[in-house]
């Protein structure tokens, strides 16, 4: 075990600058957090400490959500990183919590997978990713895409009453005053994170020279209207830590951005402008400069439940084949289109995943509002590892992690009872509707206790390629539908309380999966009223004499389906057609616990 006394973690001070920078230079990371100055100015806010473990530098800081615990950086420098990680794990174990690290970059993620397979949950949040641009792009703003930025700068320069100065002792006090005025202008939007940022900015201004910062100050009519602070991050990257400008002054932000790069960017190839912290307005602003790199950064926590990664696909295929019986082509279709390293949780035993579940993002309308939720798909455990509670552990882990409703569709009644014991409720209606065409002469639709005769007063043309032709049915036009169109029509038709909405990526895959299973997705336009509908269907038992047509989903009403179905069945050589929605269940969060509704709509679940 590691002795705390031998781990020289201590509060970061200016005396640490030289050795920390030496270790940082050895790693040459591009992430904005791997900077001595950046860690120093956050020291009071997060109790930042530094230490040297096995020849590596390590930074740790107090976690926001888990008071008393530390988050650690990944070890940096040319020392023994694996040994340092083992020491960090032991330190956390002695303190009674799991090791958590942030930020972890891609190369270090791969090392964790190699060294500690199945022992760390590795997750990424889009709000954490750094925006990196070339110096040439920000300095010149060339091209049509950045034409608007050039226009804003031109308006700022119209009166020729501006000037730029490097930040120095002569103007730092003026920058402090300007930041206070900027703070007052945003009083109505003020929050804790802004308060934190102002405190950190004060630290940066107070230790500007000691930390090796560079800065720029923009004047208009002899008044400071914008300033920025940055530093050398690595051998080829300049990082911008702060940028302030009066928001109501046209062109102030793009002007200080460009001027700082023009004056301080020489000798650098890239500029790191840090993350957007999940602020959608800030994200839009950063994207408007068209970043050359969006640097993915991971959060890592020691755990027995982890995300599957690219090295696990063989084990996942094995679990899938054993538990569901699907062929490799079908499994590969899913993995190549929907698998991400952040949407499948697994549990490892004996060096490989043995239990898994997928989590696909959806939204559900509850109380008239759309709530983020996760659809739980492909829950499976190898037979020899069952009865150990792995499936329930995966579900509970996902529920605790995301704090969002979980939605699923049980395959049978036995599984429904199992999920009921885990707290799931059945809220999505089952709607079995059988449609028969026994002798190609008569078609009957059965829905509950009601039966409908379907019209057969139309002609059809059957081609060798099974193309549907409604030559004699002037009321309808049929054509292939795009995922975007399908989603728009679907959302418009089904939208309401309890509606589970898929994003366009999910719709696109549902259509691809349906095509793989001998199906098609069509857009149908009614020439009489211009209304558009969608129909997704597939042919089951295609090679047999009793081939069936399954209506997977449609926005056609009863009468419209009655008009179309007979010709569709003939063109697909099917003798029986049916529509069946198996419904589904939800595990509610506290926020949605009072929702009492049993008529929700769930479909396209790939079940």
Describe this protein with a few key phrases:
disordered N terminus; 8-stranded mixed β-sheet; 29% strand; 607 residues; alpha+beta; 18 helices; 30 strands; 32% helix
Q: What do these coordinates show?
A:
- The protein is of the alpha+beta class and about 600 residues long.
- The protein is globular, with a radius of gyration of 30 Å.
Distance between the termini: 48 Å
Low-confidence stretches: 1-6, 438-472
Structural class: alpha+beta
Number of helices, counting only DSSP H or I runs of 4 residues or more: 18
- Percent of residues in helices: 25-40%
Taking all residues together, what is the mean pLDDT? 89
Radius of gyration: 30 Å
Identify the overall geometry: globular
Q: Roughly what fraction of the amino acids lie in strands?
A: 25-35%
**Sheet with most strands:** 8 strands, mixed
Query: How many E-type strands?
Result: 30
Sequence-ordered SSE layout with sheet pairings:
Elements: E1 10-11, H1 17-27, H2 36-41, H3 43-46, E2 49-53, E3 56-62, E4 70-72, H4 81-95, E5 100-104, H5 106-115, E6 120-124, E7 130-134, H6 135-140, H7 147-156, E8 162-166, H8 172-185, H9 192-206, E9 214-220, E10 223-234, E11 237-245, H10 252-264, E12 270-272, H11 280-287, E13 293-295, E14 298-302, E15 305-307, H12 313-324, H13 328-337, E16 344-349, E17 352-366, E18 369-381, H14 390-402, E19 406-408, H15 413-421, E20 425-428, E21 431-436, E22 444-447, E23 450-453, E24 476-480, H16 483-494, E25 500-501, H17 504-516, E26 519-526, E27 532-540, E28 548-554, H18 558-571, E29 576-581, E30 584-587
Parallel strand pairs: 11-12, 18-19, 28-29
Antiparallel strand pairs: 1-2, 2-3, 3-4, 5-14, 6-14, 7-12, 7-13, 8-9, 9-10, 10-11, 15-16, 16-17, 17-18, 17-25, 19-30, 20-30, 21-22, 21-29, 22-23, 24-26, 26-27, 27-28
Helix pairs in contact: 8-9, 12-13, 16-17
